[in-house]
Amino acid sequence: MRFLIPCTIAALLAVSPVLAAERTVTDDTGREVTLPEHPERIVVMHEPLLGVPLMDLGLDVTGSYGRTDDGGFVIAVDFIDTVLGEGKPKPSGFGPFGQPDLEKLRALQPDLILATALDAGKVDQLATVAPVYLQNIDGSKVHGFEVQANLAALVGLEDAFAARKAAYLERVAQLRETLPAEIADQTYLPIFLTDQLNVVGNSSGMIQALEDLGYTRLEVSDAGGPSAEGGSMMLMPLSTEAFGRLNPDVLVLLNNYMGDGRDEAGTRAKLGKIVPGWDRFMKPALEDRILFVDPAKVITPTVASAEHMLDAVETWSGKAQ
Amino acid sequence: MIRRGLAMDGKRVLRLSNGLQMRIGNLRTGVGLAVAALVLAILSTGLGLTDTGFFDLLNALSGGQISGTEGYALWTVRLPRILLGFMVGWAVALSGALLQSIARNPLADPGLFGFSQGSMTMIMLLLIIAPMAPKSLVVLAAVTGGLCVAGLLLWLVGGERSSGLSIVLMGIAIETVLSSFGSLLILYLPAETSIALSEWLAGSLFQANWTMITAFTPLFVLSLAGILLAGPAMATYDLGPEMAMALGEPVARSRPVILVFAVVLSAAAVTAVGPLVFLGVLAPHIAGFISPAIARARLFLSGLMGGILVVAADAMTRGVAGGLPLPLGLSLTMVGVPLFIIALRLQALRKQQSH
C-alpha cells in the first residue's frame, strides 16, 4: 500500500499532460473521436473540400489523398493553386487514388486524419494510424463555407477564420453597394456541366457569396435523376428539358474542371453539346443574365472561394453596367 | 494403410484403407502449389515502404524485438492482406469450379451466373441509401443479392432435368441486366458517390484486417468441409445432369445446395475485396492445365491456384506499381491472363502434336 499511493500519483502525473492535450469530440457521423487539442500534422482524404479550407486559414496540411509522391494532384486542376494561388507548399501523397497506402500514411506521422462521410468504410483501417474525424460535406447538411468554420473550430483556428470572414463580409458590403438594389428579390441557379447538367449543391464559397449578396436559390423540383446521400458537391442531375424551361434571374454556369475550357467560350461550347441551341431560346441567355464562373476557383467551401465569386460578380456587374 | 496402385486410366494413385484414392500427380501438384503459395507469401511480406520482411516476422514470432513501424507494416498491413487475399482467391476460384461442374461449362463463374452482380448491385444500393451502413449489413446485402439471383436462376431454368447450357444462358441474361443497372448507377450518381463505388468495384485489399480475417476464416474452413462433401458429386455433374442422376446423384436436392454454397463463397469474397472478375474461370483452368483433376482434387487445386493468383496480384499492386494506381482487379488480370493464355496455347499445341 505504501508503494501503491506514490505509484498512483506518479502515474496520474505522468498521464495528466497527455489527458490535458487531448479532447474527445463527436464527428458528423456520431462517432466519438479523441484528438489532440491542437493537431499539427493533419492528413486529409479530400483535398478540395477538407484540405484547402484549412490551408486557407494558414495551416499547412501534411498529407493529402490523391497527391502523388512528387506532389502532383490526381486530376488536371490543382485546387491549392487555383483557389489559394500558386507557390503554396503542397501536401505529400500516400498512395495513388483508389489505393491509400497505410505504410506511407503512417510515415507521415499524422495526429489527425480528416475524411468525408463517404470515407466511412475506410475508417477502421485509417484509425490504425491516427484519429479519424468524419466531416459532412453533403450540401443538404452544410451550407456555404460552413465546412471551413467547422474545421477551424475542430483544429483551434476559430480566430483565423473569424478574421478571414470579417474581411470577406466587409468586401461583400462594399460590392453590395455597387449592385442594383433589386437583387434581394432575384434568384440564381448554379449549373455544373459534366456529360450532363447538375445543380450545384449548397456547400461552396460560391453559394455563400451569392446568398450574402442577397440572391436566393431558385428551387428546382423537376430533377432528372437520383440525388446524392452522404456527401456531394452536386445537389442533383437536371434533365435538359427541365433546364430549358428554367428562368432564374442569374444563371451561373460552371464547366467541368476535369478538362480544358473553363472560360466562357468553353462553357458555352460544352452546354451547346448537351442542350443544342440553348442560347437561342433560354431567357437568361437572350437577356444576358448568365454568369460564367471557373469552378476550380469557387467550388471549395472556403472564404477564398467566396472571394473569387465576389470577383466574378464584380467583373460581371461591371460589364453589365 | 496407404497403398500405391494404378487407376483405370493408368495413372498412379495412392489408395487409403477407407477406399479413398488420390492421384499422385494431383497430390504432387497440390503440395507444389501450397509451397508456391507459401513462398509467394514470404516474398510478399517484404513488399512495401517499410524496410522489413519475413525475417523480422520470424524474429517477432520467436520473441525478438522489432520497431513499431516494422510491426505495423507486418501485422497491420501486409499479413492481413496476404491471408485475406489467399482466402478470398480460394473462395472465388472454388465457387467458379463448382459452377463449371454444375453448368458443365468451362466459362461458368460467379460473374457469368450473375451472382457477383447480384451481390454488387445489392451492396451498391445499400451504399447509396446508407453510405455508413455497418459491415454486417453489407455482408447481408451481398449474400441476399447473390441468393436472390440464385433463386431466380433456379426458378427460371426449371427442375432437375434442365441442362447446364440453359443455366449458363439464363445466368448471362440476368448478369447482363444487373450489369446494365450497375453501369447506370455509376454513370448517373453524383461524382463523389460514383468514385466511392468505382473504387470498390475495382477491387482492393485495403480493408484487410484481423477482424475481417476472423470473420472469413470459418467460411474458409467450411469450404474445406464443402470440398470433401461436394467433391464426389462434382465428378458426376461433370458428366451431365442425366448421367449424374443415373449414377445416383440426387440432382434436385444437391444442385440448389451446391449453388447456395457457391453463392455464399462468392458473396463473402465480393464483400471483402469487391468483385474479382474472371478469377473463377482463370484459376480452375490454370490448375487443370498443371494437373488435370476431377472431384475433390479439382476443387482443392482450383482453390489453391485462386489464392496464389490473388496473393501474387496484391504483391504486384504493393510492390511493382510504385505510385501507379493499380487496383487489385487489374493486377489480377495482369498476373492471371498471361498464365491463362500460355496454358491454353500449350494445351492447343499438345493436341496438335497428339494428332
Number of strands of chain A: 12
Major sheet of chain A: 6 strands, mixed
Task: Supply Rg of chain A.
Answer: 22 Å
N-to-C order of helices and strands of chain A = HEEEHEHHEHEHHEEHEEHEHHHEHH
Helix content of chain A: 40-55%
> Average pLDDT across residues of chain B?
86
Please identify the oligomeric state.
Answer: heterodimer
Structural class of chain B: mainly alpha
Ranges of chain B with pLDDT <50 over ≥5 residues? Answer: none
Beta-strand percent range of chain B:
under 5%
Q: What count of structural domains of chain A?
A: 2
Please give the most extensive interface between any two protein chains, plus how many residues each contributes: A-B, 42 and 37 residues
Molecular shape of chain B:
globular
Nearest-angstrom radius of gyration of chain B? 21 Å
Protein model, in words:
The complex is a heterodimer of chains A (about 325) and B (about 350). Chain A has about 325 residues and is α/β, with parallel strands linked by helices. Chain A has two domains: about 20-135, Rossmann fold; about 180-320, Nitrogenase molybdenum iron protein domain (Rossmann fold, 3-Layer(aba) Sandwich), CATH 3.40.50. Chain A is about 40% helix and about 15% strand. Chain A is built from 14 helices and twelve strands. Chain A has helices at about 5-20, 45-55, 80-85, 100-105, 125, 145-155, 160-180, 205-210, 240-245, 265-275, 280, 285, 295-300, 305-320, and strands at about 20-25, 30-35, 40-45, 65, 110-115, 130-135, 185-195, 195-200, 215, 235-240, 250-255, 290-295. In chain A, strands 7, 8, 9, 10, 11 and 12 form a six-stranded mixed sheet that branches. Chain A has a four-stranded parallel sheet with strand order 4-3-5-6, covered by helices on one side. A two-stranded antiparallel sheet of chain A has the order 1-2. Chain A is globular, with a radius of gyration of 22 Å. Chain B is mainly alpha-helical and about 350 residues long. Chain B contains 13 helices and three strands. Chain B has a three-stranded antiparallel sheet. In chain B, β2 (about 10-15) and β3 form a beta hairpin. Chain B is globular and about 60 Å long. Chains A and B meet through α4 and β10 of A and α3, α4 and α7 of B.
